[in-house]
TrEMBL record:
Protein name as annotated: 2-dehydropantoate 2-reductase
Record-annotated Ketopantoate reductase C-terminal domain positions: 227-352
PANTHER family per record: 2-DEHYDROPANTOATE 2-REDUCTASE, 2-DEHYDROPANTOATE 2-REDUCTASE-RELATED
Keyword NADP among UniProt keywords: yes
Amino acid sequence: MPSKLSPPQPRVHVLGLGSIGTFTAHGLNEILPTPPAVTLLLHRETLYDEYIRRGSRTTLHTVSGQTTHHRAYDLEIYNPTTRAWHSPPPSNDPATSPIAHLIVTVKATQTVAALRPLQQRLTPSSTILFLQNGCGMIDEVNEHLFPDPATRPNYIVGVISHGVTLSTPFEVTHTGASAISLGKVPRPASQSPDPAKETASGEDYLLDALPTSPLLTATTYPTYAEILQIQLEKLAVNAFCNPVCALHNAQNKFLFTQPALRRAVLDEISAIVPRLPELWGVEGVAARFALDRLEDTVNGVLERTRETTCSMVVDLRCGRETEVRFINGYWVRRGGEVGVEVAVNEGLMAAVLERGRPASRGRTPGPPFLSAPQ
C-alpha cells in the first residue's frame, strides 16, 4: 500500500529587507515545528554581492546580548532594466512561479511600485501580509494593481511593535521585545471563499505559523475589527509623533513640550474612529478611542521612547518621501468620509509635504500652530 505523500513545504517570500523585513525573515526560520522555505527578494543587484560578502546569512543581535545567524534562504534578484525578477548567478533564470505567501515590509510609499513586478505571480490563492507603518496601502494596491475583487490576493494586516534597528544589510539589533498583531482583511461578501477550499489551499498559513515563532511573538486576532483597532491605535500615536518630530528635527522627548497640539490631533481622531463603518456596532470602540485614553496611550509610548528618532525625521533629513500620506493623510481621508473636521491633521500633512519639497529643505520654522503652547 503506497504511503501518503507529505504536503509540500510552504514557501514565504519577503519583500523589503530593512530592519523589519530582516527581523521577520530571521523569525520565519524559527517557526515551529518546521520552518517554511524562505525566499528573500533583493530589490537591487548590489544586495546580492552584499549578501555573499556577509556569509550568505542574516544576523540578529538579541535583546539579551546574544547573536544568532540563519542561512537557509533562497534568493531572487530584481533587474530594473528588464523589470523582472531572476534567480541568482550563475543561472539567472527568470523567476515566474506563483507566490503563495508574501510578506511586504517596504515603506508605505513604495508599496505599489514594489508589488507591480510581482503582480502576475500573485493569484486569488496568494496571501499578502502587509507588515508596515501607516494605513491605506491596501486601498492603493487594489486601485492600481488588483481592481477586480475576484482576482485579487488575500490580505493580512500586521502591526509590529518590536524595536529593531538595521546595523548593516542583513544584520539587525533587537532593541525592544514586543509583539506582532495579525488579522485577515475580509473579502467582499460576493467573493468570500469556501472555508474548506481556503483551508486546503493554505491561505491561513501565515496566520497560523507566525505565532509559533518565539522571536516574532505574534498573535492572530479572529476578527478584522480587532486588528483594525490595534492598527488605528498605533496610527493615532504616529499621527502626532512623526510629523511633529519631523518638522522640528527632534527626538520624541520634544513632544512633551506640545500638549495642546497633541490634544488637538487626537481630538480629531477620537471623533473619527467611532464613526467608521467598519467598526459600527463593535462594543467598546468609543471608550477605547476616547480622547483622554488616547492621550494616555501616546504618553505611555513617549515615556518608553524619549530618546528615539522616528523614521519621518530621518526621511526629511535625507530628502526622501515620507509616509505622512499614509499616517495623517489617512485620518484626513477618513475624516472627510465620515464628516469630521480634520484641520489639524491636514495642516500637519501639508507642512511635512511642503518641507519635503526640494525648494523648502533647510527651513526650520514650522507653521504657526506648531509652536509650543504658552
